[in-house]
Design brief:
Protein name: Tetratricopeptide repeat protein
Structural class: alpha/beta
CATH superfamily of one domain: P-loop containing nucleotide triphosphate hydrolases
Distance between the termini: 41 Å
Strand order of the largest sheet: 4-5-6-3-7
CATH architecture of one domain: 3-Layer(aba) Sandwich
Shape: elongated
Largest sheet: 5 strands, parallel
Radius of gyration: 30 Å
CATH topology of one domain: Rossmann fold
Helix content: 55-70%
Length: 678
């Protein structure tokens, strides 16, 4: 990985990690747990593909094994199914198991796929590098220690694949619609996948079609018409063949010309869509019009206004008709031929999805929405860039949250805004990019983006944008311990943001207070932090206000005022409890009921049991063994956990309260504690 400004020219970022697969591996700041058993995707039951799977298996296990193989064929021919079958058979031979990356969501850019693979390899989200070259270097370094079978599904270009080739003892199994000649220079041979021969096609059709279709006189014309396309056969067998007589199906096929297996799949999809129930057909049209790559009931229910259970039932019906392909997590994908054959839905579907993504529409986002919609949001951003829809792209860049690849969407939006000459939009997006990089510890990219935003703000003579950019630069400098420069920039940001942006002004004041505390200027620190606190309270930002209370408590504790420190920590917990924080609510309830005396602190064992009780009650935080005591204490990086730890560490046992009595009371509480409301 790189530091500020990137690596010096000529420096090789790759490294080899030689370690047994049953021990932890550390790469820089990243520590990976030992690899578990190989994760093999479910392999479909194939018909008529034994020759292909044997040939690919021989290539994969041979002595002169290439770095990978490209399995290509027209849409609907079954490249993904064959690749999954091969992965299921040979994946257990690789210590790292099987890694699956579905490509194409972000066009031909491999960056998001690299990020997904790094997360699957155990890298924490903040530790994923921002630059593509750094992601590739880390990806190959990790696979050098744990070789894996990497399935790259749906490649569009040689560049798309090249950055994802694992190298070493790993192997890449790539699928694509057609040959990618550029991969030959990387030593990756192509393997074309043909259509099924007539006996295998008849067997596949007979597996799902009803009894009347067992007659060869009905089967043979349909098999010839499908031209070996497995998807066409499945669509006809599970839809039209089950709903109409053979004569009617043949009449419909005679009226439709299909030139090649891909065209047969599209034509069969059109017939299958036409025979689906109207509500299911309408739902399919909404999914296709929205451009969804992965389809879930919660999102479609939000887009259509249907009940989630009704939507889930309709999706299941579409899956049974093979118009959708089911995924292990209960979601679905829409095959390309079906997407092309589905009639357009009413206009405005894509706009409603964008409103859902940006939180601007009437429908509320379902819980965990950004996690389930990652692929769809990448595809939406790539499509907006392709259509030069810079307004939609900018709205996405301002709204998306992890675990979506925020850095990629923000970079795409910034580049598009620059191409469009929209300085104000570009500056706002660069500021978001700087914040994303700063949270991930990428100081160099964060400074570059913030500096670019500052240049644009100066060009626009926009002091609000300039103040925001200066504040972000100060944040980076403070985190790198350049405290003198950071304090000067925080003061400048406060001047620029006063009466222009109350939220950013509050952030600058809090940053100024934190830096002053680090420099030993406690009085001035508390003054700035209390100003930030008042601003957050006026804005109704409860969690930010709680964080400011926490900072005030830490500062008062530094200068020895234990009473004021405890009061600040209690205020932080009360603020969080009012905002619904489960850990803070439980602690506050215990204090209100007289079960804990927090003002003067708790003795070691009682504090430990308090931590155990809170963990049992909420599931938040972890119980760790302190080196000087046998019982756990509350740990974690949340504001509530930090405030509770600070309170338990302050002062002596209150007068008149028996430590033994409190120990017994807390032990009883820990035994029966359950999550409270909220």
């Amino acid at each position: 990985m790189t530091g500020p400004g990137g690596p010096p020219a000529g420096i090789d970022l790759s490294l080899q990690v030689g370690a047994p697969v049953d021990v932890a591996v550390q790469v820089g700041r990243i520590v990976l747990e030992p690899a578990g058993p190989a994760t093999v995707p479910d392999a479909p039951a194939l018909v008529g593909r034994s020759a292909e799977t044997v040939a690919l298996g021989a290539l994969l296990t041979g002595r002169a094994r290439p770095p990978g193989v490209l399995l290509h064929g027209p849409s609907g021919i079954g490249t993904t199914a064959v690749a999954l079958a091969v992965a299921g058979r040979h994946g257990p031979a690789f210590p790292g198991g099987v890694l699956l990356a579905r490509l194409g969501d972000a066009g031909e850019d491999p960056g998001p796929a690299l990020r997904r693979l790094l997360l699957d390899l155990g890298v924490a989200d903040p530790d994923v590098p921002a630059a593509e070259a750094d992601r590739t270097a880390l990806y190959r370094s990790l696979l050098a220690a744990r070789p894996a079978l990497v399935l790259l599904d749906g490649a569009r270009a040689a560049r798309h694949v090249r950055a994802l080739l694992p190298g070493g003892a790993s192997f890449a199994l790539v699928t694509a619609r057609g040959p990618l000649p550029g991969l030959t220079v990387d030593g990756v041979p192509g393997h074309p996948l043909r259509g099924l021969d007539p006996p295998a096609a008849a067997m596949l059709l007979g597996r799902d079609a009803p009894v009347p279709w067992q007659d060869p006189a009905h089967v043979e014309p349909l098999v010839r018409w499908c031209q070996g396309s497995p998807l066409a056969l499945l669509l006809l067998g599970c839809g039209p063949a089950a709903a109409a007589s053979p004569a009617d199906v043949h009449a419909a096929l005679d009226a439709t010309r299909a030139d090649g297996p891909a065209a047969a799949a599209v034509a069969a999809a059109g017939l299958a869509v036409a025979t689906a129930p109207a509500p299911a057909r309408d739902l399919l049209a909404v999914a296709a019009e929205a451009g969804l790559v992965e389809i879930g009931a919660a999102t479609l229910a939000a887009l259509t206004g249907h009940a989630p259970d009704v939507t889930a039932e309709l999706l299941g019906e579409l899956g049974r008709r093979r118009l959708l392909t089911s995924l292990p997590d209960g979601r679905f994908t829409l095959p390309g031929p079906v997407r092309r054959a589905t009639p357009a839905a009413a206009s405005g579907v894509r706009r409603r999805y964008l409103e859902l993504a940006t939180g601007r529409g009437p429908a509320a986002r379902p819980a965990g929405w950004f996690g389930t919609e990652q692929r769809n949001l990448l595809a939406l951003a790539a499509d907006a860039a392709r259509r030069q829809d810079r307004a939609s792209l900018a709205a996405l860049a301002r709204s998306v949250e992890p675990p979506v690849d925020v850095a990629w969407i923000v970079a795409l939006a910034a580049d598009e805004a620059a191409l469009g000459g929209d300085d104000a939009s570009e500056a706002a997006i660069r500021l978001r990019a700087a914040a994303v990089h700063r949270r991930g510890g990428a100081w160099g990219p964060a400074l570059r983006e913030a500096t670019r935003a500052l240049e644009l703000a100066e060009r626009l003579d926009d002091m609000r944008l300039g103040g925001h950019a200066v504040r972000l630069v100060a944040d980076v400098l403070a985190e790198r311990d350049r405290l003198d420069a950071a304090e000067r920039l925080y003061r400048t940001a406060c001047v620029l943001l006063t009466d222009r942006d109350p939220e950013q002004h509050a952030h600058a004041l809090r940053g100024l207070g934190r830096v002053r505390r680090q420099r030993g200027r406690a009085g001035l620190a508390v003054q700035a932090l209390r100003s930030a606190l008042a601003a957050y309270q006026r804005l109704g930002h409860h969690r930010a206000a709680a964080a400011a209370w926490q900072d005030i408590g830490d500062t008062e504790r530094d200068r020895g005022d234990r009473t004021r420190a405890a009061a600040a920590y209690r205020a932080a917990l009360s603020t969080l409890a009012a905002d619904g924080d489960a850990l803070a609510r439980r602690w506050t309830a215990l204090v209100r009921n007289g079960r804990l005396q927090v003002g003067s602190g708790l003795p070691g064992p009682a504090a430990a049991l308090a931590g155990r009780a809170l963990i049992a009650a909420t599931g938040e935080g972890t119980a760790t063994e302190a080196p000087d005591q046998a019982l756990p204490r509350v740990t974690g990086d949340g504001t509530a956990a930090r405030a509770i730890r600070a309170l338990t560490e302050l002062g002596e046992d209150p007068d008149g309260v028996s430590g033994i009595d409190r120990l017994a009371a807390l032990h009883a509480l820990a035994d029966r504690a359950r999550p409270g409301p909220g």
